[in-house]
Amino acid sequence: MTLRYSLDFSEDPAPEAWIAVPILEGRGADRQRRKWAKKCAELRWALEDGGPRDKSQVKELARWLEGFSERLPQRTPMQHLFAYAPDLRKELLPFFFYAAQSEGPVEPVLDTLVRRNQPGAAQDPQIVDFTTDNLGKGMRSICHFVPKGGEALCMSVNYGWRVDSCGIDLSMRTVSDNIGWMSANIDAFDEFARLLKVIVHPNDITVD
Q1: Cα 150 from Cα 152, distance rounded (Å)
Q2: Number of independent structural domains in the chain
Q3: Exposed end of the chain (fewer CB within 10 Å): N or C?
Q4: Whole-number Å distance between alpha carbons of 32 and 27
Q5: Are 85 and 72 found together in one domain?
Q6: Residue 199: which CATH number?
Q7: CA–CA separation, 133 and 137 (whole Å)
Q8: In this structure, are 126 and 184 located in the same domain?
Q9: What is the Cα Rg of the chain in Å?
Q10: Organism's domain of life (predicted)?
Q11: pLDDT tens digits, residue range 134-146?
């Protein structure tokens, strides 16, 4: 089964620090990706007070965005991708979204989505209820772990919801080894998650 859904926000305009990154495939994808990244970088910098210091900053943001759109979907299963960019002069932080048709009791599913038993965990994850008006029953976890084959301690922030109105289980996740910066931005992640809403139309669910 193929599940297609869209992500939207309960407030307009969308949060400025978050950039929706297209996942492009097929013929002409490279060209579309470069064109999108260049235009998006120009528009995003135009929103900044005073604009960029020089053109190299616009090119650097475009390079990051193009790289996100090209590389990350090849490494991580996802259907939507956002970049958190509160400071355009610094590295972007990717957020991955994946949804599947709801099946079984909700609690075990949410435990899986927030990686309650993540391999390589350095300590027990911090798991809290994260139910929202738009998405329904959910959880959020903060996990510290050493990835397989790695040495640096990493931190992941994982959200999971059972979206009863759409019949899907949705996950939102990010990971980085910049633990201090991640920890300082948890409130911003939570605020973004609370604004999210999902739209699924019956015609968007097909059996392969």
Answers
A1: 6
A2: 2
A3: C
A4: 10
A5: no
A6: 3.40.1000.10
A7: 9
A8: yes
A9: 18
A10: Bacteria
A11: 999 999 999 998 8
Rounded Cα distance, 132 and 196, in Å: 9
Supply the DSSP symbol for 25: -
Q: What backbone phi and psi angles, to 5 degrees, belong to 75?
A: -100, -30
Residue 4 corresponds to which amino acid? R
Ranges of beta strands (E only) in 28-163 are 80-84, 93-101, 126-129, 137-145, 154-163
Instruction: Output the pTM of the full model.
Output: 0.90
In this structure, are 157 and 197 located in the same domain? yes
Residue 95 shares a structural domain with residue 187: yes
| Average pLDDT score over residue span 188-196 | 96
- Would you give the DSSP letter of residue 50? T
Same domain, 57 and 90: no
For residue 141, the cross-strand partners are 127, 158
**Do 146 and 133 fall within a single domain?**
yes
The three-point CA angle 106-112-113 to 5° equals 85
pLDDT tens digits, residue range 54-69?
Answer: 889 999 999 999 999 9
Cβ neighbours around 68 below 10 Å, total:
22
Q: Which residues contact 23 (CB under 8 A, 6 or more apart)?
A: 69, 73, 78, 79, 80, 81
What CA–CA distance (Å, rounded) separates 200 from 174? 23
Same domain, 59 and 129: no
Q: Which amino acid is at 135?
A: L
Residues 10, 103 within the same domain: yes
